[in-house]
Amino acid sequence: MAHILIVDDDEIVAELAANILIEAGHACGWVTDGDKVLQLLKWRRPDLLLLDQDMPGMSGRQVLREVRQSARNYDLPVIMFTAIQGAEDEAAAMYGGAQAYVRKPFDRRFLLHTVKLVLHSREGRPAHRELREVMEYNAGRGREDGFVTRAV
Predict the structure, then answer these.
(1) 5 with 50: CB under 8 angstroms?
(2) Which residues form the Response regulatory domain (predicted)?
């Protein structure tokens, strides 16, 4: 089970996506704008962010940029979720740091499959805090870059 935060200004779409993900065994919540999600991410880190690309005020791409620049959430998995059609928008989202791209209206199976793939790709990776601790430990052993040159 993953904790998934949905960010979409269309509450009907957000609720539909949440219901599908809840039926699949995930815990979900949603917010309706970019400012709210950034405030929430200061206090709680979900396992995955399902982010609408086109919202009034702060766009999904702007939120993604802020997330990627955040020391706390820079490695948070993000799936862009949008009704915008076009390869350029998809490429921009992926280059901006999204792990996947789901077009609306979405197919239930495709949404679940994409969520599963993104979550599975994160399994076995150390959390960024654990990785930082290892790097700091290695840096204390004389390596400025924090990397180990040989296994012990």
Answers:
(1) yes
(2) 3-119
Query: Do residues 80 and 101 touch, judged by C-beta distance below 8 A?
Result: yes
* CATH class given for the domain over 3-124: alpha beta
Task: Say how many C-beta atoms besides its own lie within 10 A of residue 12's C-beta.
Answer: 8
Contact of 52 with 33, CB cutoff 8 Å: no
DSSP 125: P
Q: What is the pLDDT of residues 131-152, one digit of tens each?
A: 555 555 555 555 444 444 444 4
DSSP 23-68: HTT-EEEEESSHHHHHHHHTT---SEEEEES--SSS-HHHHHHHHH
pLDDT in tens, 90-119: 888 888 999 999 999 999 999 999 999 999
pLDDT one-digit tens code per residue, 26-72: 999 999 999 999 999 999 999 999 999 999 999 999 999 999 999 99
**In angstroms, rounded to a whole number, what is the distance separating the alpha carbons of residues 150 and 152?**
7
Distance CA 36, CA 20 (A): 23
